[in-house]
């Protein structure tokens, strides 16, 4: 499988010219140092950058894009490099534009319940800053302790609380964006409502750095719950666990978290952390509700009627420990081998069918698939595990992934709920969008980036 993007008329302008346009120390050209900025958390092989810019301000981004536009040099923006779709992978002859040093929380207004932040702010750091005022930043991807707000915006990241609070786009009120030619655009607002003009904020969120570079964001904060109750239920059947998810949603319990882990994932966690996994457990459901345990949490526990074991947290420490099991899922899987971490989303009513399709695909192709799900919103993460040392997944893994993607689309779902298209899913994109949407996407790209220098070869 090829990952080489098409770059329109790129030149090999010397990096010295870029360095002269920026303050001292902003541009790296040492190949060994640049390699650390050339890849994300996928296996997709990176190209060789011309240079790496360590931006510290909007002016640095403006200068970089003006220079790149003048010389038709591709620019690949990146945050912490935690992406799982190849979206921040360097292309040959590009400038990698790192925003990780832009870490200012410019404003945090408890009265308006908003924050204005730069793209390098770590997601969990913003949440902690908000909680000092009795607020929270709701989106919480599993990588929230290391991922940046800019990367979350670029991929429209989700997380464990999506079932109640939505994805990153639902918390993005306005953006400061530097366009491909260096012009600065401000989109959106700082009010809770506003319908003036087209929704450019929503367009940029999830565009994976192909339309502009986000240098600041006005984000909605929420009131932090005073009390949380967590339910953990173990099932002897993965399909029974998925059915319990459907029952909880149908009942209107309004969980703030509803996560599903399969046996393979649980076994990897148990081998690492010794969580006391029972031999008969095939799946675990972790649900959380805001409020006392005798209200929504108790009802969710009742709806897990097919569970072999159900526990409801009685202290904040117990609740945090149960949620901590879910956050161990990805690092535990990495201990098994190389991982193709995938991300499909289906209507919540179709979750049992999607889970069954994944299990059948794994058996048919003899592939190890470890599955977790943001089950409350139908977002399923099948992780295809293969041998270390391989340059990319073997053919049987790609065949299994192809079946899973097509199964999700057949159930009325989507190819990606939060990781983005990047490089890895481009060949399947047309199955979902169709020719009319593809034409419109290309037209939008042409308006914002006529020279095709912004993250070329990605997403569209």
From TrEMBL:
UniProt cofactor(s): FAD
Entry-linked Pfam families: FAD-oxidase_C, FAD_binding_4
Signal sequence bounds: none
PROSITE patterns documented for this protein: FAD_PCMH
Annotated ranges, domain FAD-binding PCMH-type: 45-224
Domain of life from the UniProt record: Bacteria
The keyword Transcription regulation is assigned to this record: no
InterPro entries for the chain: FAD-bd_oxidored_4_C, FAD-bd_PCMH, FAD-bd_PCMH-like_sf, FAD-bd_PCMH_sub2, FAD-linked_Oxase-like_C, FAD-linked_OxidoTrans_Type4, Oxid_FAD_bind_N, Vanillyl_alc_oxidase_C-sub2
Coiled coil: none
Keywords carried by this UniProt record: FAD, Flavoprotein, Oxidoreductase
Name used for this protein in its record: FAD-binding protein
Organism, scientific name: Microbispora triticiradicis
Lineage: Bacteria, Bacillati, Actinomycetota, Actinomycetes, Streptosporangiales
């Amino acid at each position: 499988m090829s990952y080489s993007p098409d770059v329109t008329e790129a030149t090999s302008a010397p990096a010295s010219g870029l360095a002269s346009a920026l303050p001292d120390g902003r541009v790296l050209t040492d190949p060994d140092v640049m390699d650390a900025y050339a890849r994300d958390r996928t296996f997709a092989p990176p190209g060789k950058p011309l240079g790496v810019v360590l931006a510290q301000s909007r002016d640095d981004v403006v200068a970089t894009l003006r220079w790149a536009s003048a010389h038709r040099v591709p620019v690949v923006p990146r945050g912490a490099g935690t992406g799982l779709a190849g979206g921040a992978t360097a292309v040959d002859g590009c400038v990698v534009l790192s925003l990780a040093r832009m870490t200012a929380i410019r404003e945090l207004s408890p009265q308006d319940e908003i924050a204005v932040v730069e793209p390098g702010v770590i997601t969990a750091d913003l949440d902690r800053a908000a909680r000092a005022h009795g607020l929270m930043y709701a989106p919480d991807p599993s990588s929230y302790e290391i991922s940046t707000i800019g990367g979350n915006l670029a991929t429209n990241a989700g997380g464990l609380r999506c079932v109640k609070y939505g994805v990153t786009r639902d918390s993005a009120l306005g953006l400061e964006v530097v366009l491909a030619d260096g012009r600065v655009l401000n989109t959106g607002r700082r009010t809770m409502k506003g319908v003036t003009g087209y929704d450019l904020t929503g367009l940029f969120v999830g565009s994976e750095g192909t339309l502009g570079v986000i240098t600041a964001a006005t984000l909605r904060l929420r009131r932090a719950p005073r009390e949380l109750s967590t339910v953990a239920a173990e099932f002897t059947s993965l399909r029974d666990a998925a059915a319990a998810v459907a029952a909880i949603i149908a009942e209107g319990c309004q969980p703030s978290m509803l996560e599903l882990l399969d046996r393979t994932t649980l076994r990897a966690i148990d081998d690492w952390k010794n969580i006391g996994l029972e031999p008969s457990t095939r799946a675990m459901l972790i649900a959380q509700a805001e409020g006392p345990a005798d209200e929504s949490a108790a009802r969710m526990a009742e709806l897990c009627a097919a569970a072999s074991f159900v526990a409801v947290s009685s202290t904040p420490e117990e609740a945090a420990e149960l949620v901590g099991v879910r956050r161990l899922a990805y690092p535990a899987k990495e201990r098994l081998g190389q991982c193709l971490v995938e991300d499909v989303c289906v209507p919540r009513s179709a979750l049992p069918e999607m889970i069954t399709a994944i299990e059948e695909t794994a058996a048919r192709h003899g592939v190890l698939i470890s599955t977790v799900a943001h089950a409350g919103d139908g977002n399923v993460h099948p992780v295809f595990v293969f041998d270390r040392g391989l340059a990319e997944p073997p053919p049987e893994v790609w065949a299994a992934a192809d079946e899973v993607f097509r199964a999700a689309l057949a159930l009325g779902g989507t190819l990606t709920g939060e990781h983005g298209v990047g490089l890895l899913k481009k060949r399947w994109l047309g199955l979902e969008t169709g020719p009319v949407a593809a034409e419109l996407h290309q037209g939008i790209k042409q308006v914002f980036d006529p020279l095709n220098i912004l993250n070329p070869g990605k997403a569209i």
